[in-house]
Amino acid sequence: MTRRAHFTLKSVSGFLAGLCLLTGAASAQQCGGDFGQFLAGVKQEAVAKGLSANAADRTLSGARIDRKVLSRDRAQGVFKMTFLDFSKRVISNYRLKNGAANMKKYASIFQRTENEYGVPAPVITAFWALETDFGAVQGDFNTVNALATLAHDCRRPELFRPQLIAAIEMVQNSDLDPQRTTGAWAGEIGMVQMLPEDIIKFGKDGDGDGHVRLKQSAADAILTAGAFINHLGWRRGEPWLQEVAVPQNLNWAESGLGKTKTGAQWAALGVQPRWGSISSNLPASLLLPQGRKGPAFLAYPNYNIYLEWNQSFIYTTSAAYFATRLAGAPRYDAGNPDPGLNDAQMKQLQTKLRNKGYDVGKIDGILGAGTRAAVQDVQQKLGMPADAWPTPALLNRL
Questions:
Q1: Residue range 221-234, pLDDT digits in tens
Q2: Where is the signal peptide (predicted)?
């Protein structure tokens, strides 16, 4: 999905379990309570927005709560794997081979997509591979049930209620079958996993049949993905990620997202590309997913678009790196990173950092942005290489 629900959707404080809000115009039940009354309110809102009562009835008449969806939502999968472990798992020879074959097979639609939206084939192909294995694994949750369940649930109704109404519009347009359309647990549909509202706004008919069907049509999926990525701010003709070799005397505190230098400035510090040439005039951040002894990358402005697609740092960096491989880059130099922390150690580290006043968010064992920033600051204060990679040595020092 664009903006993957199970990684990027943010909880909204103030929405408590069982809370119901009233819309000013329709006074419709927003979440919780009797499911039938909730669906009646959704129909009322959909009709008020110009959709047909018949389409609303066809969409909602068989809808039911899916407890498996709620279970997935309460236990959202979050990456605790390292970048090396995760990227090795998802960037297989099979996916590289099939990615190249699909770029060749659909060369004309990829070219059209790049001409119209500026997004090159490797970028879309990497998402296509990671999201659904080129359409082979699109999810088996009934889409309407998933959206109705999450819209009725009071954790994030402000997100999912509009998606349910967008699904009604797709039914009206004959682009969704309420009984048969399936996808991911959070309502994403198709080869590149998009939510209904995004399909309505950015869906493109790539094969000329008059419909946007992202489950069946690779051409529709490719063109739609390009349109959406363009909407997120993709910069035509610019790189997104580049593997580099770094000198060991670098000031590691200057690494990390949010800290940028021009490519020329990084080069002056001894940072050298392992493939291609550094874009001298573009700002770039130095990413060290597993510290100064592991792989190193320059992340250019287009890398930020990956974070819009999915805010997981490990997924994002793997997807961006995968796209460089499809574009011709060699396999990364894995280096020899210092050992990291296991789950219990990471939680212990987060607790210690929080006790020192750092905002690391939930004590969950996840090396997220807050924990990375705290680690880097503490490393610097302790006189350790400030590469934001937590190690047993750092934990012992704390």
A1: 999 999 999 999 99
A2: 1-28
Q: Where in the chain is the domain with CATH 1.10.8.350?
A: 5-75+138-231
What lies within 8 Å, CB to CB, of 170 at 6+ separation is 176, 196, 199, 200
| Contact (Cβ atoms closer than 8 angstroms) between residue 217 and residue 190 | no
**DSSP at 283:** E
Tokens of 198: 């995004």
Q: Any alpha helices (H) in 82-217, and if so which ranges? A: 83-90, 93-105, 107-117, 121-132, 143-152, 157-172, 196-202
pTM of the predicted model, to two decimals?
0.89
- Return the number of other C-beta atoms located less than 10 Å from residue 382's C-beta: 12
Specify the CATH architecture of the domain 5-75+138-231.
Orthogonal Bundle (1.10)
What is the tens place of the pLDDT at every residue in 271-289? 999 999 999 999 999 999 9
Q: Which residues of 234-249 are buried (b: 16+ CB within 10 A; e: fewer)?
A: bbeeebbbbbbebeee
